[in-house]
Amino acid sequence: MKFDTVELMKSQDPISWRIARDEYIDSLEQDEEIVSFDGGENYYWIHELESLNE
């Protein structure tokens, strides 16, 4: 059997999934790799936004 680890974790342990996701996002925000303009609903890679500005 093959499973998608992310989908399995989301469906079987949503609390752990949210904790892991939030920790990952926090680490990227601290490293200034991503940014959100709407309070965390959507995140954008800063390098992609910079490439739109070129």
List keywords for this structure.
two-stranded antiparallel ribbon; elongated; mainly alpha; 54 residues
Write the layout of secondary structure elements.
Blueprint: H1 5-12, H2 14-30, E1 34-35, E2 44-45, H3 46-53
Antiparallel strand pairs: 1-2
Helix pairs in contact: 1-2
Plain-language structure description:
The structure is a single chain. The chain has 54 residues and is mostly helical. It has one domain (5-53). Helices cover 61% and strands 7% of the residues. It contains three helices and two strands; from the N terminus they run H-H-E-E-H. It has helices at residues 5-12, 14-30, 46-53, and strands at 34-35, 44-45. The protein has a two-stranded antiparallel ribbon with strand order 1-2. Strand 1 and strand 2 (44-45) form a beta hairpin. The chain is elongated, with a radius of gyration of 14 Å. The N and C termini lie far apart (46 Å).
Strand content: 5-15%
- Give the low-confidence spans: none
Helical segment count? 3
Number of strand elements: 2
Separation of the first and last Cα atoms: 46 Å
Structural class: mainly alpha
Summarize the helix and strand pattern as letters. Answer: HHEEH
Give the spatial strand order of the biggest sheet. Answer: 1-2
Strand count, sense and closure of the main sheet?
Answer: 2 strands, antiparallel
User: How would you describe the shape?
Assistant: elongated
Q: Helical proportion?
A: 55-70%
